[in-house]
Design a protein that fits this description.
single chain; mainly beta; 8-stranded mixed beta sheet; 3-stranded parallel beta sheet
Length: about 120
């Protein structure tokens, strides 16, 4: 009986979506420079610490704000993004957003390849 419970637990954890372990970052703009790659502009809601969202993370950008992804940030990937402002993406490289809920503006400048998954909701 205990063996079956352990096997079921291991399988559940192995097959669970990555979002269970994703960090959730909310834009607070505390750095005052609108730069995506400045950790002072983000708060990790899981740990209440500053940091920059990375691959597999969830991003919340709300309010009348502008967030700039600089050309120096060549490649980045985000699991989920909830955007209610403006996201300016500059430079070359790649940007991948696996799911997006968009009620704002994305301005892509330069030779950046941007992929937004088809599970996204864009208004």
């Amino acid at each position: 009986m205990l063996r079956n419970v352990i096997i079921a637990l291991v399988l559940t954890l192995a097959l669970a979506p990555m979002q269970l372990w994703a960090s959730i970052y909310r834009w607070n703009g505390n750095a005052g420079n609108n730069n995506w790659d400045d950790s002072r502009n983000w708060i990790n809601l899981n740990t209440s610490s500053q940091g920059v969202p990375g691959s597999g993370d969830i991003v919340l950008i709300e309010g009348n704000v502008v967030v700039n992804v600089p050309a120096s940030l060549a490649n980045f990937e985000i699991e989920d993004m909830f955007l209610r402002g403006t996201l300016n993406i500059a430079g070359s490289g790649s940007c991948s957003i696996n799911a997006m809920d968009l009620m704002g503006t994305i301005d892509i400048q330069g030779a950046r390849t941007t992929t937004i998954a088809d599970s996204s909701f864009i208004q």
